[in-house]
Design a protein that fits this description.
Elements: H1 8-18, H2 24-34, E1 37-39, E2 54-56, H3 57-61, H4 71-82, H5 87-94, H6 100-106, E3 110-114, E4 120-124, E5 139-141, H7 146-149, E6 174-178, E7 181-189, E8 196-202, H8 208-225, E9 231-235
Helix pairs in contact: 1-2
């Protein structure tokens, strides 16, 4: 893609100009899957949406990419965010394979542990490792949050027995961490000229104290997400 804006319509036209007789949409997908791209604004503006807009990494960084790949740096940054983690976790998060040799190369810079299942876990040397008594107040996570998706084995945050509570319709939803585990899901309904409603579905019955903490955290989420108007937090049986 040669233009600064990364407009797909322009890109398809250029590709079709260079390779006449080929489907422009297919050529655009070829660019998408073979070049390092960056998704740029205005996609993802708060409260609005639009078509994805991409440009090349070289254009975004205003410099050419180096000849190699900084896989070691990527693994260190991954562990800084998501450690302790296994090699399989890092591979699932990054989409890369054969990272065992990278972890072995970095072993002298890392701390290692053994999980309850015997698997080897890696972490950065100075990473925070709170104890089991550390407070874990309710937290609302957006859909597709990397806290949930950053590992191959997600049982450390989603109990196997609770997976049945997730909707199977394909609709996106946020999750709620209660005592460090996913204990519910949420959806924000905010239609024009109507009250904003945060709908919460809990997986298990909570104490009145924990339920109040979830409601209070939900109210703070609404304060952040909705600038003004009538707002409501509701705990419902279904989203």
């Amino acid at each position: 893609m040669d233009d600064a804006s990364g407009d797909w319509t322009f890109a398809r036209w250029r590709r079709q100009e260079q390779w006449p007789g080929h489907d422009s949409q297919v050529l655009a997908y070829a660019v998408h899957y073979t070049l390092p791209l960056v998704q740029v604004p205005p996609r993802g503006v708060w409260g609005k949406s639009g078509r994805p807009t991409c440009t090349t990494a070289e254009n975004w960084l205003n410099r050419p990419l180096g000849p190699g790949t900084a896989v070691d740096d990527m693994v260190m940054r991954y562990l800084t965010a998501f450690g302790p983690a296994t090699v399989a976790d890092a591979q699932a998060w990054s989409g890369l394979t054969r990272l065992r040799e990278v972890f072995d190369r970095l072993r002298a810079r890392l701390r290692t542990f053994r999980g309850e299942d015997g698997r080897e876990l890696f972490d950065v040397a100075d990473g925070p490792r709170p104890g089991p008594d550390a407070p874990a107040p309710p937290r609302f996570l957006p859909d597709y949050d990397n806290v949930l998706l950053g590992h191959a084995d997600r049982t450390h945050i989603v109990r196997d027995a609770d997976r049945r509570h997730f909707p199977t319709t394909g609709e996106s939803f946020g999750t709620i961490l209660i005592d460090g585990f996913v204990g519910g899901i949420w959806k924000l309904e905010h239609k024009r000229r109507a009250a904003a409603c945060l709908r919460i579905k809990l997986f298990h019955r909570l104490s009145s104290r924990d339920c109040a903490a979830v409601t209070e955290e939900g109210a703070r989420l609404l304060d952040f997400a909705v600038a003004d108007g009538v707002r409501d937090v509701r705990i419902v049986a279904k989203l």
